[in-house]
Design brief:
By secondary structure, the protein is mainly beta. 11% of the residues lie in helices and 53% in strands. The protein contains one helix and eight strands; from the N terminus they run H-E-E-E-E-E-E-E-E. The chain has one helix at 6-20; strands spanning 35-41, 44-52, 57-64, 67-78, 83-91, 99-109, 112-119, 122-130. The protein has an eight-stranded antiparallel barrel. The longest helix is centred in the N-terminal third of the chain and has 15 residues, at 6-20. The radius of gyration is 21 Å and the shape is globular.
C-alpha cells in the first residue's frame, strides 16, 4: 500500500478545487429575473409593476387614481430556464393567498419578459419590459 505524501495530497486538493469551480451550479440563479418589470400591452405601459428581489422576494403593485397599491407579496423560486414558482403570501384575490403558482417564463432579451400561466383553468399571458436604471429628463 502506497502512502499519500503531503505534496500529492495538496495537488489532489488543488485539482479538485480547480475542477469544481468549472462545474455548473445545479440551482438556477435568480439574477436573470431580478429587477423591476412593467407590464405592457401592445408595447404600452399598463401601470402594473412586478418586482423580483435578488433575495427571492416578489411584489406586484398597480397604479390607481389614488396611487400605488400592492397586489401580491411573496417569494419566487426558479425551477428551470423556463419555469418558476411564485409562493404567494398575500394577493388581492384572497383565493390565491398562501398558494404556490407555477409560471412559465421566456426572455427574448435581457429587457423583455413573457410570463404565461394557468390559474383555475384560466390561461394567461403577460409581457413585461424591464424598468431601466436611468434618469429621464424631458
Amino acid at each position: 500500500m502506497r502512502k499519500i505524501t503531503t505534496p500529492i495530497a495538496v495537488a489532489l486538493f488543488a485539482a479538485t478545487f480547480f475542477l469544481s469551480s468549472f462545474s455548473s451550479d445545479p440551482k438556477p440563479k435568480t439574477k436573470d429575473l431580478a429587477g423591476i418589470w412593467e407590464m405592457q400591452i401592445n408595447n404600452r405601459p399598463t401601470g402594473f409593476l412586478k418586482i423580483f428581489g435578488t433575495g427571492g422576494d416578489v411584489t406586484n403593485v398597480r397604479l390607481t387614481p389614488l396611487g400605488f397599491v400592492k397586489t401580491l407579496s411573496g417569494s419566487y423560486e426558479i425551477q428551470s430556464d423556463s419555469t418558476y414558482i411564485e409562493k404567494v403570501e398575500e394577493h388581492e384575490n384572497a383565493a390565491l393567498n398562501k398558494t404556490n403558482v407555477v409560471l412559465r417564463y421566456q426572455m427574448d432579451n435581457p429587457n423583455t419578459l413573457t410570463i404565461s400561466y394557468t390559474i383555475n383553468n384560466f390561461p394567461g399571458k403577460e409581457t413585461y419590459k424591464r424598468v431601466p436604471f436611468t434618469i429621464v429628463v424631458n
